[in-house]
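Re: folding output
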Amino acid sequence: MSERRREFLKRAAAAAAAGAVGVPGVPGIALGAGRAPVDAEGIASDDVVTPYFGKKPVASGRNGLVITSSPHATRAAVQLLRAGGNACDAALCASVTQTVTEPHMTTITGMLAMLYYDAATKRTTYVSGGMNAPLAGLPGWNPTDLSTGRSAGVPGWWAGFEAALAKHGSRPKAEVVQPAIDYARNGFAIYPFLYGEMLVQLDTIGKTPTGRRIYMPNGALLPPGSILKQVEAADTLERLVAEGNQFFYHGAFAQAYCDAVKAAGGVITPKDFDRYEVRWMEPARGTYHGYDILASPPPDNGGTHVIEALNMLELLDLKKMGPPTESADSLYWMTRVINEAYEQGAKHTDPSSHDVPLEMILSKDYAAMRLRLMKMTPVREARPAPPPGSNHVTVVDGKGNIATILHSVMSLPWQNGLFAMGLSIAASGAHFFRVMPAPGDRATVYIAPNIIFKNGRPVLVSGSPSVGLLQNIVQNTTNILDFGIPIGESVLRPRFGGPATTVPGANYIEVDLDEKVRAAAEKRGLRYFVTSPWHFMNGSFEGIHIDPATGTATASADPRRSGMAEAV
């Protein structure tokens, strides 16, 4: 090892430990173009931003704003906005870039869904590229299947991307995908969060020759700061640009995917791919204290759950009680109503083949009945949730168009260790433990893209990844709308989260949320699992607040992820 390399690794480790920003010579994201120039030793030569957990700058502007959990993706999307792209173009650019720069959170073999507001027509549309269960069915489905080919669903990511770009995009597909191709072919530096997930998944990441070529080229995991290249993925992305859905669903990729899955005990066939279709759906609709809410509908029922929870909270005097960081009453009821919505959501199945009474579920009368019954019954324990593994992207452009996208690996990263043409095969069946779809049906997933309007104008658009996405969205939404807390302060506040994976029946809660407030809520029957501050399992608020008077958009990346908000 050269002296330069030793010095680089020393500086990289120190910078990562400190959460450094803009440290010369420490590779992260090159601020110039959509690629990271490196020297002969694989060391980034530009000054860069190292993706880090912790407090981030607030970004604001009137000509466009992007927030994602990846600085690489945020910068690529902002550059596309500057080149004349709209919110849809930029959000899709960020999403496909994240499949390369955040492979521990997302993959093109997962799912993608977008809520889009067109400022010219004032119409909001929703496209669902969720995953289907295999036509063959999964009898005897159990947790051990997650490490096999039986874990794979029929992916909707690329179909959702193609459909969204065709309907709302304005730039060529090649331009939208190019930053992702650049990062895959030329590489980027492995940052702390990515390395941590690689290390945790050491059991599976190198199970196949493809996994070893990418992440263990010398027989061991690439270390933090080294350059990660995904050349096979770059080749596949280029074919997707050239051949699109034909290649993915009816051609060589579909066959390669099915072959890899079958060899590992799975049951997906080319027929499953051939019949896949995206769904254009009407958003779920609700109101809250004079605001109008549009959100993802079943089977992507997290948006429905947000509306359900806000319907119940509207019946309480939150403003009098105070935010959940300060009020045991607010903490208690907010935890209960979200747990209730999530628990009941496990009864929702694919509305294309089962009756899901959405109008009743979202009604104010139903909310009043539920809250009244909850006051009479013991506290419901938090229902177990699928593992984390997703990204959210939110973009507002200079014309007022809005795109908010959830896309995801739908499971732990590299959970089955399988790859097809350089792309990780998502173990998306992790969501089948909540609701098992009928053979060939669409999976029910609790994702929650949402846009909130006041007098017809968008004022808050958001979403979140991770186990605690519902709790995250509801807490930040009420912080901003009910208590006037600036978005940059709201994301920093202590948070309670979703079901704790290690303590059945408990909700996550961050240790710096006032212990007296937590203890008072626990005395009333709730259970919490205390975590360190800014815990990544408690979601990442990819939200943008829009001042209705000035049109200024404001965002701040959540400290619980490695994200970045940037204005045009």
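--- second protein (sequence, then structure) ---
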Amino acid sequence: MNNVTSDTTIKGTAVVSGVRYAKAVWISPRPELPQAGEVIDESQREAELERFTTAAEAVADRLEKRSASAEGAAAEVLKATAGMVRDRGWLKAVKKGIQGGHPADYAVVAATTKFVTMFEAAGGVMAERTTDLRDIRDRVIAELRGEQEPGLPTVDEQVVLFADDLSPADTAALDTDLFVGLVTELGGPTSHTAIIARQLNVPCIVAVGEKLHNVKVGDMVLVDGALGTVTLDADPETAVAAEQESKMLAERIAQWTGPAETKDGHRVQLLANVQDGNAARIAATQSQAEGIGLFRTEMCFLTATEEPSVEEQAAVYKKVLEQFPHSKVVVRSLDAGSDKPVAFASMADEMNPALGVRGLRVARANEALLTRQLDAIALAAKELGRGEDAPTWVMAPMVATAREAKWFAGLCEERGLIAGAMIEVPAASLMADKLMPYLHFVSIGTNDLTQYTMAADRMSPQLAYLTDPWQPAVLRLIAHTCKEGERTNTAVGVCGEAAADPLLACVLAGLGVNSLSSASTAIAGVGAQLSAVDFETCKRAAEAALDAEGATEARAAVREVIMKANA
């Protein structure tokens, strides 16, 4: 890839690695949205309401049928999208518009706009769901008009798919034999597009920006999912060679069986990020995960209006723990608030929720909420007979001070749980020497650590160049954390998106990270890359990244170090 030169290379946020050289196609256009103006006679409103109800149910049914034939994250996303079509609040808003005299299609637009505004104000993951909202809007409008659903174009050869943004329904329906790459103008690393692309293992780049529209249908494009680049005028011979090299790497990854270690035997534990029992089952049966490094408990309760009992929570946690009966499982206590609103735990609206009462901070005003969750985790572990050979670790999100670490650790120890904390607030990294004496381990959440270090919303496409975990400032905080971990004999892991980047994994290992936890589909790529280098190369790669001026320079410097080592 270093030999491919271009004056027209467009850069975005890398999501799934891989190189593909193929023609570009664009997603089929969305329906033209109606404008306000027409008023329906009161005598016709009941019929219009029925017409909308029928259309919405037809769209929801189709999405549910697609979810039944999909697997893993794709199935979950499609089912959730069907649920959005049936959401009571959205349906009520549309029906209110129709009862007020609006035609059904305009009432759909008005109701969706209302919810999009709310989600965008919430920010974070909620803001990324606006793509899903607009998608169901367009599908219902097309159904109302008797038009074909918007979405994937019909193709008969391998292509790279371009779009402003991709709906979950379209992403989940991709035939990966034909659609060999995905590139979007908008989106983020935790959007539904990114989640499903990782499962499908399709090279994917998001947040490219308006320059993406320089790409026209039929253009030959070279997409590098690791670098996050789209090259429009690549030399064909060099591009084909780069694609072949990428496919050979994919074959090596497919043959890797673990466990993860460098050429000279330095071990790095590879774990999986999960949100429920199904994801844990997939990680246990379809990947080389050695355990679970991040169980996002709040994802189990996003739709719960009341706090589940200790017994109800324990039943949910057991479904995850039982998938790794003889392995380490790291459970994160509720990370409620900000972009993950949990009705029974989140605070009232805040001016800046990302810097507000979220994570462990919620428990300051409601300690019983935390202690009941810890009781449930301890109960689940006890009922499954988990012992020293299968430790149950629990970590708190948004820890910022030593006092918080001591308080949380005390609550865990009372229940026989192994206590840890997430390092995602820069203060926690800088004060690691004061936090670690109270903790058995820490896990670095690179998504939020990068956001807070660079003062840039990690969901903003415009700021994607800042919210890159390759930023040397972020890597320096990780290096400092690892140094204190070694000094205090505290295990240091990484559970953010950085852990899924094979090249960055070498840097993290060189910095002293003991374990990497990522989407289970990324584990083999990371393990294969680590097995191709020795530990000294990892250390040199880390030094090069720390010394770089920026994220792009750090990535390039590390590539050069590894290429020289393998020459």
